[in-house]
Design goal:
This protein is an alpha/beta fold. The chain folds into two domains: 13-180, 3-Layer(aba) Sandwich (Rossmann fold), CATH 3.40.50; 210-475, Aldolase class I (TIM Barrel, Alpha-Beta Barrel). The chain is built from 20 helices and 14 strands. It has helices at residues 41-52, 62-68, 73-87, 101-118, 129-133, 135-140, 155-160, 177-180, 204-208, 240-243, 251-265, 281-294, 313-321, 336-341, 348-361, 378-391, 408-415, 425-430, 444-461, 467-475, and strands at 13-18, 56-61, 91-95, 123-127, 146-148, 171-172, 223-225, 228-229, 247-248, 269-272, 301-306, 324-332, 365-371, 395-400. The strands form three sheets. A six-stranded mixed beta sheet has the order 2-1-3-4-5-6, with helices on both faces. Helix 11 (251-265) packs across helix 12 (281-294).
Amino acid sequence: MFGTPMLRSNRSRILFIQPWNYHDEDVCDYNAEHAWRNAPYNIVLLATICNKAGHEARILDLQRNLVVRLGQVNKCLVDIDEAIENFHPDIVAVSFFSIHYFEAKQVVERVRQASERLRISPILIAGGIHATVSPETCVNELGFDYAFVGEADMAIIDIVEGKSPLTIQGMLSRSSLALCRGTKGEQIRELDTLPFPDWSLIDHKFYSQPSYARLVFAKTGSLDMIMGRGCVYECSFCAYNALSAVRFYSAEYLVDQMEYVHRTYGVNGIYFTDSTVGNNRKVLRLMCEIILRRGLEKKLIWLANIRPNQINEEQLKLMWRAGCRFLLYGFESNSQRILDIMKKKCSVEANERCAELHTKLMFPYCASMLLGYPGETEIDLNLSMDFLRKHKPPSIGINWYVPLPGSPDYDKLRSEGVINTDDPEEWRRIGEVNNARCYADIAAPRFRQMFDDACRLAYSDIPNQVGEHWRSAVSQMLP
């Protein structure tokens, strides 16, 4: 209506928006003591980069807003109106997963409406994993002006400083989709040159509030960090490699950031969101050693994801001394046949050794299992349940398999016509988890019964059996 959106060449105003989670709609009984939500690390970092370059960036965190507004979506839509009216952004960037397809569409429509009333024309940019794996739906169906594919750390300054969008690597529009499909944003090589995320840009206390969701038996809070980007493994169900090449921060940078987060935001816990912190064991070891030299282990704890084949007793003892108090393992299955189909490059023997070692050291951990994988049979699933009954992990995650956009599994199932992304509802169904389809070689009613049995085992039976020895160990481990 007001012509082609253009970027200003001087100081720009950019509004980052994180859509709400539709599972929180109409939920008015939020229990913070048992909640654990990951903060929007990536958009906080991008907003920080923009601000440090002399521009003005703000974040509208609708995930947080919907929860504190007790599930009332209409109030989140009003938040969008007010953000546009008060800020008059030149750019609106929305970062989202495929599961947020319909929420992103509502955000775009509301931004357009508010902008028309004010007779302004900010450009709308889609980012995040959905924009990376399906830029065409962002510009053709959701109404964005551009979709940004890949990492935006390098490109964000070009974007806010008014460089022609179609000359920016990774930026795609309707006119450039066919020409530039497959082009990704330039990836920063030296991660240490990035600033620490400015958590004051969002309600960081919402995400770091203490709860029992992290350590199970002890109430603690945390903010997120990442050790690096990408993954050296190529599991078929994982989308990490669709986004990033493998790079790592230095150990010194990581400990500096931990100290910064603790000092600046009063947080006593850090959660490393990497798929595994074991991808660079040299950095991991050095990080632990620096923490110990600085005495930081007396001030905060940290939690992380890691693989069963990436640990040994010496390493676990070092991590414990350095303040690591919880590790989450994606065991996924205890059937070697299924692990091989998943391309996990891990063995059931490694699973067994890992569980035994944690019990020996009384080092709390979570055993995360992925049920319903394509090709899985009742025999395979029962092997996983036998593993849980035998080792009785202090924390267990039971997950219903869904094909994640960007993963090799997703591409394969889409090419075979098993999932139909011409139907917009498919984006949501893929993320429905417990209401999703069954991909295993088990009849759907039988699989649902077995899944429910696994959940009872994990969330009722085993927790009642783990005993005071785990509770006692956890209660004494906080600084």
